[in-house]
Amino acid sequence: MAADERGAHGRGAGDEPLTAPRDPRPGTPESAGLDPAPLRRLARDVRDLTRGERPWCAGAVVLAGRGPVIAVEEAAGWAVRYAAYDEEADAGVELPPERRVPMTVGTPFDLASLTKLFTTVVAVRQLERGALALDAPVARYAPELTGAARHGVTVRQLLTHTSGLRPELPLYDLPDVPARWRALCEEAPAHEPGAYLYSDLNLLLLQRVLERVTGRPLDALVRDGVTRPLGMTATGFGPCPGAAATEDQRRPWGKADRGLLRGVVHDENAWALGGVAGHAGLFSTARDLAVFCRALLAGGGGVLAPSSVELMLAPPGLGFGVDQGWFMGELAGAGAAGHTGFTGTSLVLDPASGSYLVLLATTVHPRRRPPDNGPRRAAATALATSLAGAPQTRPSPN
Fold first, then answer.
1. The domain that contains 228 carries what CATH number?
2. Which one, of 17, 31, 22, 32, lies nearest residue 357 by Cα?
3. Chain-centre distance of CA 331, in angstroms?
4. What total number of domains does the chain contain?
5. SS3 label, residue 384
6. Residue 14 within any structural domain of the chain
7. Is 176 left (phi over 0), alpha (psi -120 to 50) or beta?
8. Residue 205 lies in domain
9. Strands (E), 37-147
10. pLDDT tens string 78-133
11. Residues facing 55 on adjacent strands
C-alpha cells in the first residue's frame, strides 16, 4: 500500500473521515451568534464591487460563517462579462447581456494560490505518518532537487517561504514539461535560507517531494487525502468548464498568449506544468471552501489531527499566513490565519471565534491590474465587527 493510502487513524484513502464535523448549513447571522448589521453591509458592499464601468471585479461570491452555520452567502455580478480586453481603449469588450453568464453562489473559481493550502494539508498528512520530517533537508526525499540540496533547504523552509528561492521561474518559456521540471530541480536559492521571501517555487518543490514520498501525483493526493473525505465534490484541478472566466491573457501584461481563459488554470507556470501544480491549479466554490474552513476549525475534520491543525495555524504559520492585516483587516492580531490568490480569491479563519470568511472574485477579468486589497480587508473587518457586536454566546460546535 502506498504511503498516502492509509491515514493516521488507519482509514483507507477513500473512506469517510471518522470524526468529520457536520457540514456548514445556511442559517442567519443570529443563529451563528453574529451581529447581522455588518454582514448585511458586507453583502451590499460586495454587490457594489461588481458595478460600474471599471469595477473591482466582474463578479464575486462572499460567504461568512461561524461554527456549523453559514451566516451570509451572496453572489454578485457576472461569471463571464467580457469577451476580450481592448488594449487601445484600456477596457473590457463587454458581451451583450444575453451572452453574459450570471454569477451564482455555486460558481467555481480558479483558486490560484489558495491551492497552496491544500498542498500544505497533504504535506502535513505525511508528517503525521512519519514519511516527512519538518526539519529534514528536501534532498533526503527528492535527491534530484540539486539546487536546494546545495543549500540544505528543509521541508519547513518550503512551507514557511524561508528557503531563499526567488518568487518565480519563467517555466512557460521552456520547451516542454521535462525541461521545466529540470529547471525547478536545478534552481538554487537566490538568498541564504532563513529570511521570509514568498515564492511559488517553494510549493512546486514541495509537490516534487510529496510525489516522491508517496509515489502518487499531487491531484490524486489532494483528492483522496483532502477533498473526497471532506465531501468537497466541487473542488479539483482543472479543466472546469463552468468556472468563472479569468483573463484575456496576452503579452505584455500576461506571460503567455492564451486568449480569454475560462475553466483552465490562469497561472502561467501551473499551465506550463499541465494544470496540476503545488502552488496553483485548483478550482472550487465558496460552499466547498466553507467545508474546508469548518473542518480545520473543528480540529481537522478527520483528515488531520487537531495538533496538526494547530501546527499550521499557530504563528508564524505553516503554509497559512497568520495575522496579516493587509487582507485580514481587523481579524488580524489574535491568531487569524488564511491566504489569498492572484485571481481575486481569499479565505480567513478565526480559530478564537470559530468563524471564517471566503471571498472569491474575478479581479483579473478581463485583465490583471495592480492589486487592491482594500475590499479584502473591508470584508474581513465586517466579520470582525459582526463578532464584536454579537451577544457573548457561541453556536453549538456541531
1. 3.40.710.10
2. 32
3. 18
4. 1
5. helix
6. no
7. beta
8. 25-388
9. 59-66, 69-80, 82-86, 91-94, 101-102, 109-110
10. 999 999 999 999 999 999 999 999 999 999 999 999 999 999 999 999 999 999 99
11. none
